[in-house]
Design goal:
The protein is an alpha/beta fold and 301 residues long. The protein has a single domain, classed as Zn peptidases (Aminopeptidase, 3-Layer(aba) Sandwich), CATH 3.40.630. The protein is 36% helix and 20% strand. The strands form three sheets. Strands 1-2-6-3-9-12-10-11 form an eight-stranded mixed sheet, sandwiched between helices. A three-stranded antiparallel sheet has the order 4-5-13. The chain has a two-stranded antiparallel ribbon with strand order 7-8. Helix 1 crosses helix 3 and helix 3 crosses helix 8. The longest helix has 36 residues. It is globular, with a radius of gyration of 20 Å. Bound molecules: zinc ion (ZN). The site of zinc ion has 6 residues, from strand 9.
């Protein structure tokens, strides 16, 4: 057997050690995210009945040293602890909705496969995990995103659904947008972290930009330059992310806030709006990394 030179041996040992440390870190992150996911997916939160989940999330944010407040619609806002190094990250708001379409189902995990009521427990879990990882964005958890959406089971709509009394979707985002519009200093960017049926689990997150909508020169027209900057930050190949135009759901409402960028980063699901929603942890992990990349490049946005 040919002997390896000592130095190369040491190098390869160090590499192996780094790799194992990295794998261990990824495992710990997955454990932590799954803990958030199971808690949130298993908690009842039909549209207009988000209060139990909201209290839990308030406690989670406080445990991460965040200050919280609830607005007139019931949206939960979280502000990071005040320290100078975090100043730019706090100008980015990560947003996900608290309400579910039907009865809760605690997520089950089998390898990378995730099954349960994942919309939008996944989005909230990603946001909490990113904060736990040490990043310091502002946070907004909205109510009534699903208002007006029916749960479909076996081709028939199921009575478990909850139609918001307003009869329309994104009611919480409408109130939040009003609040944001009145702020003198607008956030640089609001990133909605959501789920989608536009792609298949394992194929990577879908990133919605808004260049296809609105009227140039009007306030609702998104700053295309800003989207280009974000696209540069997110390495498409590295994440296998897919870009598409448009503003789904809450992000469409937020796009009406003047002088604030909006994007949506969405994880693919099968069986959307059923209790058997199925996702892939690899998409979740990529979404965490994408959100972290955006926050770490807050100065470029
Ligand atoms: Zn959703």
């Amino acid at each position: 057997m040919k002997e390896e030179p000592i130095i190369e041996q040491a190098d390869s040992l160090a590499l192996e050690k780094n790799k194992l440390n990295g794998e261990r870190e990824n495992e710990l992150e997955k454990e932590s995210l799954v803990e958030y996911l199971q808690e949130i997916s298993g908690t009842e939160s039909l549209s207009e009945q988000e209060s139990i989940l909201r209290s839990k999330l308030e406690a989670q944010l406080k445990a991460l040293s965040y200050t919280t407040s609830v607005d007139g619609a019931g949206n939960l806002w979280g502000t990071p602890p005040d320290d100078d190094t975090a100043n730019l990250q706090r100008e980015i708001i990560l947003c996900a909705h608290m309400d579910k379409v039907g009865a809760p189902r605690t997520a089950e995990v089998d390898g990378n496969k995730l099954v349960g009521r994942l919309d939008d427990a996944l989005g909230i879990s990603v946001i909490l995990q990113v904060i736990k990882n040490g990043l310091r964005p502002s946070v907004l958890f909205t109510v009534e995103e699903e208002g007006g959406v029916e749960e479909i089971v076996d081709g028939k709509s199921k009575t478990m659904r909850r139609i918001a009394s307003s009869g329309r979707y994104s009611n919480g985002a409408r109130v939040a947008s009003q609040n944001l519009s009145e702020q003198e200093r607008k956030p640089r960017l609001l990133a909605v972290v959501e789920v989608t049926k536009k792609s298949k689990p394992g194929e990577g997150p879908v990133i919605y930009t808004s260049a296809g909508y609105g009227t140039p020169g009007k306030q609702e027209y998104f700053d295309v330059q800003k989207i280009k900057k974000i696209a540069k930050i997110i390495n498409k190949k590295k994440y296998g992310a897919m870009y598409t135009e448009g503003r789904p759901n809450d992000s469409m409402i937020f796009a009406t806030v003047p002088d604030m960028g909006v994007i949506a980063i969405e994880m693919p699901l099968l069986n959307m709006h059923t209790a058997n929603e199925e996702g892939d942890y690899r998409d979740v992990e990529k979404t965490i990394r994408i959100v972290e990349d955006i926050l770490n490049n807050a100065d470029k946005i």
